[in-house]
Amino acid sequence: MEILKVENLSKVYGTGEARVEALKKVSFSMEKGQFGAVVGASGSGKSTLLNCIGGLDEADGGKVFLSGRDLFAMGENERTVFRRRNIGFIFQAFHLIPELDVEQNMIFPLLLDGKKPDQERVEELLEVLGLKDRRRHLPGQLSGGQQQRAAIGRALITHPALVLADEPTGNLDSRSSQDVMDLLCRASRHYQQTVLMITHNRNLTASADRVFQVMDGRLKELGGGQNETLS
Amino acid sequence: MKHYLDLIKISAGQRRKENRMTRLCIVLAVFLVTVIFGMADMEMRAQRIQARKTDGSWHAAFQVEAEQGALLSARPEIRRAARYGTLNYHLKDGYLLQGTETGVCGFDLEFQEMIPDARVSEGTFPETDREAVVNENIRARLGTGVGDTVELTTPGGDTKQYLVTGIAENTALTAELDAFCIFLNVDGFLDLYGEEDSADQELLYYVEFRPFCRIQQAIDEISRQFALSPEQVRQNAKVLMLMFQSGDLYLMQLYLVAAVLAVLVVIAGVFMITASMNSQVAERTGFFGLLRCLGATRRQVIRFVRREALSLCRTAIPVGAASGVLVVWVLCGMLRLMSPGLFEGLPVFGVSWPGIAAGAVVGLITVLLAAGAPARRASRVSPLTAVSGNAGTVHAAKKTAGTRFFRIETALGIHHALGSRKNFFLVTGSFAFSIILFLAFSTAIDFMHHAITPLRPSAPDLYLLREDQTNEIPLGLAEELRGYPGVKRVFGRSHAEFPLEGEGQNVIVLSYDIQQFQWAEGALIEGSLQDAVDGKGVVSVYRDGNMSAPGSFVKILMGEQEQEVPVTGVLGDVPYNYGLDADTGQVTDLVICSEEMFQRLTGETGYAVLDVQLRRDATDAQVQEIRRAMEEACGSDVVYSDRRIRNQETRGASYSMSLFLYGFLAVIALIGFFNIINNIAMSVSARMREYGAMRAVGMSTAQVTRMVVSETMTCTVFGVLFGCMAGIPLNRLLFRWLVTSRWGDAWSVPGRELMVIVTVMAVSACLASAGPVKQVRKLPINLLTK
Ligand SMILES: Nc1ncnc2c1ncn2[C@@H]1O[C@H](COP(=O)(O)OP(=O)(O)OP(=O)(O)O)[C@@H](O)[C@H]1O
Ligand SMILES: [Mg+2]
């Protein structure tokens, strides 16, 4: 089942001499449960791509369909509501709310949606994330890896159709990075969760189903992670 | 945690420091409004107490006949009605008690409820027409007591005997006139009145309306029903005004001005809270971006910011209201201290519920209004700011700083102030506002100075006057009285009138002692008083353009012989009306000299008037002693007057009003003060990182200081400029409205007020820069790298 479909996505920043074509007619699609990795040089347009897919930024051309709905055809408010139900974000800098403990941070998106958190689901996620004994800790009392795991929990709590992660391991050491990667993989396999992740670390693309490379605003599929390591 | 808004509660504890500014602003706004309304409320109460005491609580009086009176009393909106009439009000119609002119008042018992002066302090009110109450003067002078009989002689020569059933306190008027007065009941009064044939003496029906009755309408209806002319209806204007029941258009204007000022205060509060919240939002763009990123809609962000602001009210409003109440207590305490007898009815720890309610409501409204713009601003934060790392730390500079005319740090400071148009207008606007507020309100002070004449320092509590104006009060009496307990000062004036040489006009010569010369100093227009004190000449008084310039001579004919007296100075005004004939408008020249010179000129020793000022704790018994001494020394050819009650009333009115108005003015200056401190502290804390970076690249603390100071000064100077531009015309408008329309005084630029508020602004600007500068000094240079 096709979850994500991107058609001719373009994005231009600035005008005149400062004009930058960050994305040039990017098209691709992803099936449900796939784990995609995006690689590319700095400034090639990876974050721009992710932001447009996530509906955080407006594209200048092209379309993004998520679960068959056209993201850019929605109004601002509708898109926000759609986003919080269907897209989970994971950031390089974790961005947990410092005043809330792990569990509260995790359920926060549900509260924004006016929903009651399903306690079983919370317990299960905490278990999977290995944060059961840290649930009452504030972000400041956690290591970077633990913080990022809590952030993953926050992204997964709503059963989103798509999880977007912009360099989730960028601030972590290799050990924690591997933990985070394993978690994302497991989520992808276990919950049939579609994940699209940006990474600089080629080693981490090994577990990905598909690898995309962005070069100067253009997207090229490199094939599966295994293929990549073979070639 | 059940709801996303619970985050506010959870984070409140940790954000206490960040919220301090906003909370302080709310506290301040609530405090100010509580104080303003609390003071207005207390002032109203004080005025009401005073009005009841001096004018009584009656609302209106109608001159109607007996049958009409019965109908009138039966009207449903009337709570009380009582008949009242006087005879011999001017004390010259020939109603005599042991040979002394006596005023006669006749009224129903109910009348006492409406006029406190009519109360009987000892004994009871007459029940039959053969009974009477006598006043304190009669008791003191004739030794009459309850149970005695008094005999009143009418102008027709009849005598009436009354049994004294009670004693009444002196009123301001009877004390001042040293007058005899008796109270009769209406039957007794009518019996006496029956012998009087002038028809203009009739009974008035005094009424008090029920609460919530629309009094003006009721009065109109009654006038129509009984076909009364306006002269037959009296209104207790002061009490009605204080009940907001007066139809006086002028007073409506006054209320309007008060309302306008209250609104201005609210706007000032909104300005301050908006500014502080805006800076909060700017510091938290990353957080709001994250909220948006996690799926909060704009509306939810707006609700979040609003709710957060409101949650600050929970502690800020009680604190503001409590401190407001405290200040009101202090002010009321001062009022009671300054004028003890008068404001006894004023509660020491009175809680003004209207004040607190106004404070709370205004606090909430202000916060809601103020939170609007920052909330919208927060909601417009793009979710992208959460994704991109550098959210909100870099100010979006649109222009580069002009470094041509100033040193780099000064230029940067000015640039910081002017950099963001919107912020600049917000900050200078709020500074300007304090000035506008101050200038607008200062007209109320001008109004007060016209409306209420404060008690002159020279006003006597007791005085003794020779009616024929001969100088026969012995000088020794003054000396003797100075030794009496309860006496603060004794001073007299001698009086003489001589023909001037030639023209056929007269000149009045008056003597002052040193104390009186000192009091007159403020009124000196030209020349010197000292020469007159030393006996080298006289001081002339400016009257209707008549004056003798210093250096000229007054030529007086003393009998046959002529005396030339040099004029050493000119007084603009004296508190006495010698030589002013109110009926003909004729003015006689007046000169003042020292006592010693007066004796030299006239050969007379002695005073025509003797003034006594009493100590605050002087008792009635002591006053009686003084009076006895006066009578012993002067016999009965003098008029004795006790002005204590009158003075207290005058003093009380001006104290309470000036306390209220100056208090309000101080509050406005305080707004300006906090506003500047607040704004500067905020803008500095927002730029702390930038300053750290500048220190890192080699800026000295002195330079950073100059930068902060130049930013502050830029805002202050423009604020003052804008404030004057809008405030002076407003001042003029209000002045015309309040003062010119009533007393005809021309408006002039309010220089003194401007100086005060500009000084306050300047001082607060200096203080405002001092705090942050200290903070900057302590700033670690490596702040940026953290
Ligand atoms: N807000 C913006 N305004 C102007 N240009 C921008 C903006 N954001 C990104 N760009 C430009 O668009 C291009 C792509 O940026 P993008 O952030 O997508 O790169 P990236 O691949 O994520 O790089 P990195 O790996 O360093 O994060 C860059 O050349 C960048 O300069
Ligand atoms: Mg990037």
Tags for this entry?
heterodimer; A: 231 residues; alpha/beta; Rossmann fold; six-stranded mixed beta sheet; 10 strands; 33% helix; globular; B: 786 residues; alpha+beta; six-stranded mixed β-barrel; 22 strands; 54% helix; binds magnesium ion
Question: How would you describe the overall organization of this protein?
Answer:
Chain A is of the alpha/beta class and 231 residues long. Chain A is built from 7 helices and 10 strands. Chain A has a single domain, classed as P-loop containing nucleotide triphosphate hydrolases (Rossmann fold). In chain A, 33% of the residues lie in helices and 28% in strands. In chain A, the strands form 2 sheets. Chain A has a 6-stranded mixed beta sheet, sandwiched between helices. Chain B is of the alpha+beta class and 786 residues long. In chain B, strands 14, 15, 16, 17, 18, 19 and 20 form a 7-stranded mixed beta sheet that branches. The radius of gyration of chain B is 35 Å and the shape is globular. Chain B starts with 5 loop residues before the first helix and ends in a 9-residue tail after the last helix. The chains are: A alpha/beta (231), B alpha+beta (786). Chains A and B meet through helix 2 and helix 3 of A and helix 1, helix 11, helix 12 and helix 14 of B. Bound molecules: adenosine-5'-triphosphate and magnesium ion (MG). The site of adenosine-5'-triphosphate has 12 residues of chain A, from strand 2 and helix 1.
